[in-house]
Design goal:
Elements: H1 2-6, E1 11-13, H2 14-27, E2 33-39, E3 42-47, H3 58-61, E4 71-78, H4 87-95, E5 99-104, E6 112-115, E7 121-122, E8 125-127, H5 135-145
Parallel strand pairs: 1-3, 1-8, 4-5
Antiparallel strand pairs: 2-3, 2-4, 5-6, 6-7
Bound molecules: zinc ion.
Zinc ion (ZN) binds next to strand 4.
Length: about 150
């Protein structure tokens, strides 16, 4: 049931987008990559599953994502500022859901694009939502990955 609902994601919460942009900024000049979770058609949470290695592309880490019904795709940064997906990006997109955001330097509200699994642009609205509703998503994430003390 959750899977059917997640197929139609139309928006990202402004707070979540701001988080993505600020993490991308603080990771610069390195790449940042994480997973996107949605509830009721709105992306409400991003999670960074693995410690970023300086030798491995951040995107490569996303090939190892565990299954979670709220997981709808990925997000990663392009420090170059070019927001087009690379061949490696598309390969990862195909394996990890149908909504993939690339944020490009300088990481402002205009420097992000959402793609589908084959690298076609998607439109996402930015919504001001009350993220109190994210608790179920967070619970599922913790169930999948275990508690983290951060
Ligand atoms: Zn990329």
């Amino acid at each position: 049931m959750a899977l059917i609902k997640q197929r139609n994601v139309t928006a990202i919460a402004r707070e979540t987008l701001n988080f993505v942009l600020s993490v991308s900024k603080s990771s610069y000049p390195k790449e940042f990559a994480g997973m996107l979770y949605a509830d009721n058609g709105v992306i409400t949470r991003v999670d960074v599953p693995l410690t970023q290695s300086s030798n491995v592309s951040a995107v490569m880490n996303l090939f190892m994502l565990p299954v979670n019904p709220h997981l709808i795709g990925s997000v990663h940064s392009h420090p170059s500022g070019d927001m087009n997906p690379s061949a490696t990006d598309i390969k990862m997109f195909m394996q990890n859901g149908d909504y993939h955001i690339i944020v490009g330097y300088p990481y402002d509200m205009k420097s992000w694009v959402c793609y589908d699994r084959v690298g076609k642009r998607r439109h996402l609205d930015v919504l001001d939502v009350n993220l109190d509703d994210k608790d179920q998503v967070l619970e599922d994430i913790l169930e999948t990955f275990g508690e983290e003390d951060d």
